[in-house]
Amino acid sequence: MSSTLRTEGLSKRFGDFHALDGVTMQLPRGARHAVIGPNGAGKTTLINLLTGTVRATAGEVYIGSERVTSLRPEQRVRRGLVRTFQINSLFPELTVLESVLLATCQRTGAALDAWRGLDARAQEFQAARATLRLLKLEGVADVRTRDLAYGEQRLLEIALALACRPRILLLDEPAAGVPRRESVALFEAIAGLPGDLTVLFIEHDMDLVFRFAQRITVLVGGAILTEGTPQEIAGDARVKQIYLGRAA
Ligand SMILES: Nc1ncnc2c1ncn2[C@@H]1O[C@H](COP(=O)(O)OP(=O)(O)OP(=O)(O)O)[C@@H](O)[C@H]1O
Ligand SMILES: [Mg+2]
To answer: How far apart are CA 10 and CA 21, in angstroms?
Structure first.
């Protein structure tokens, strides 16, 4: 199966410290792939190397068949590789719809082209509404982002990422700080994203991981300990040992 996102021997050293060490993985189109591992295992470093905010010491990153290892983050975004950012502090006064509209216009350039007129804007408006529907945020479309519940803020961050029309979406602990009752709804929304969108997520809550991931990579000390289906990972003695007392 052809992959949308692939790494080969991806590595990052900080001085003598190997934060990521020879990580080779590939995600087919439409994957719902979790990366798990103890604190400091290198999960966030992996995402930073994928997006290009941190430069790899060795190894390669491919989007489709294109090698993107030396491309800047914004060049990777243009190729469809997008991560979420915590935006609630950026647009506190904007409503949910305004925020997504702004992000949509940024992609299409509509905000810069006043001369294109209202007809063109109507398209962005529809696209923004569709994104809100997808994430079940229509009910809070007119709420200011600062007044959203935590789970809704995280959903809005995903909505803003989707406004970039990604092929691959990277989520670093999307449910961090979100109360339990909201985190399941959050992951249900992620599970319901378009089937051709490839999703890579980092998550500490094993219930959520085993419920929503199709495949799981276990990182320990910067290297891949093992990779497999949730069933395979749940049955792996080494993984059990690492997570004993942690998996609820
Ligand atoms: N800029 C940096 N300089 C030096 N060391 C770093 C840097 N960034 C990360 N590290 C180290 O690399 C290791 C991996 O960090 P990383 O943030 O990738 O872990 P993680 O798996 O995301 O952990 P967590 O579950 O706590 O989020 C850690 O030991 C961290 O201290
Ligand atoms: Mg991390």
So the answer is: 7
